[in-house]
Specification:
- The protein has 2 domains: about 160 residues, D-Maltodextrin-Binding Protein, domain 2, CATH 3.40.190; about 130 residues, Periplasmic binding protein-like II (D-Maltodextrin-Binding Protein, domain 2, 3-Layer(aba) Sandwich).
- It is built from 13 helices and 11 strands.
- The longest helix is centred in the N-terminal third of the chain and has 15 residues.
- The N and C termini lie far apart (about 65 Å).
- It binds fe (ii) ion (FE2).
- Fe (ii) ion binds next to loops.
């Protein structure tokens, strides 16, 4: 009987030492950091992977009964929507305050960014001079008709870029930009950023808008494509973070905080970005060799928390201009 009770207790304890993450970030990318966290703390992590927006909707639909403790996304806009919806618990942590720069977290620490990704212009150096594509606005020139590739409008990457642009220059100017870009792209709208860089490398198109790491990943796998694929970072470029928040309904906030503090630590940061060629948000953590140094680009002045406020007008605008 005693043995049974002990077993039961052990079972219950192990059960409570478990976190459920709803993750919009691919499993392959976060497995190394989560495995290391479990190895160090004994806290198990169960992953439910899916699209960032899809998982946000799932949490809202599940309400109080959501089993999720932690929400991880590839986008700060969705985290800001979650904060506004009141489902995130502000994180109180000295590690977070000390390590994560203010620009990369919510003003009340309801969510924090973990890795930085830049929106960039990928191009074929055999067909395009970098001086022709200094800014995103350069891509509105009709000379790019049939030569420009963009991502589907239903994706969070162009959506958050448009939201940041609305914050910078207003809806009217953003609409003009978007209509010109759509006219140039025509039917060259791709279901993934990796397909865009592939299309450039293969000579299908000459320029495209993508997250920077898709170029690095393509070149890592296909080093021979260096001649036909490169990228430029426009000044004050649009950017985003992959980030994380703790659900207010979680009964394991203490464990969730341990996870977040590990992700914000130097070791956690290194493991979090490594696979994906992103920039650690913690400035003292070195970047991967071969990446553009941090002092060689500048970011939009729009804070991510402000960008998040424009997510809904963005969806309306995308609808209005027929960007699918
Ligand atoms: Fe991505």
């Amino acid at each position: 009987m005693k043995v049974l009770l002990a077993l039961l207790l052990a079972f219950l304890t192990s059960f409570s030492q478990e976190l459920i993450i709803y993750s919009g970030r691919g499993e392959r990318l976060i497995k190394p950091v989560l495995d290391e966290f479990t190895r160090r703390t004994g806290i198990k992590v169960i992953l439910h992977s899916g699209g960032t927006v899809e998982l946000f909707n799932k949490i809202i639909a599940e309400g109080e009964r959501t089993p999720a403790d932690v929400f991880m996304t590839v986008d700060a806009g969705t985290l800001e929507r979650a904060r506004i919806a009141g489902i995130l618990e502000p994180i109180k942590s000295e590690v977070v305050e000390k390590n994560i720069p203010k620009d990369f977290r919510a003003p009340d620490n309801s969510w924090i960014g973990l890795s930085l990704r830049l929106r960039v212009i990928a191009y074929n150096p055999q067909k395009v001079k970098p001086t022709e594509i200094r800014t995103f606005d350069d891509l509105t020139n009709p000379k790019w008709k049939g030569r420009l590739g963009i991502r589907t409008g239903s994706n969070i990457y162009p959506q958050s870029q448009i939201a940041m642009m609305i914050a910078e220059r207003g809806e009217k100017e953003t609409e003009k930009f978007l209509r010109a870009i759509l006219a140039n792209a025509g039917d060259k709208i791709y279901p993934s950023d990796s397909r865009i860089v592939e299309a450039i490398a293969k000579g299908e198109i000459d320029v495209g808008i993508v997250n920077h790491y898709y170029v690095y990943k393509h070149l890592e796998a296909n080093p021979q494509d260096r001649k036909t694929l490169s990228f430029v970072v426009p000044p004050n470029t649009h950017y985003n973070v992959s980030g994380v928040g703790i659900l207010k309904t979680s009964k394991k906030k203490d464990l969730a905080l341990k996870l977040i503090e590990f992700l914000a630590s130097e070791e956690g940061q290194r493991l979090f970005v490594e696979e994906n060629w992103e920039y650690p948000v913690v400035p003292k953590v070195p970047i991967r060799q071969g990446m553009l140094p941090r002092d060689k680009f500048t970011l939009s002045k729009v804070p991510l928390s402000v960008m998040g406020r424009y997510m809904v007008p963005t969806l309306d605008l995308i609808d209005k201009v027929g960007y699918r």
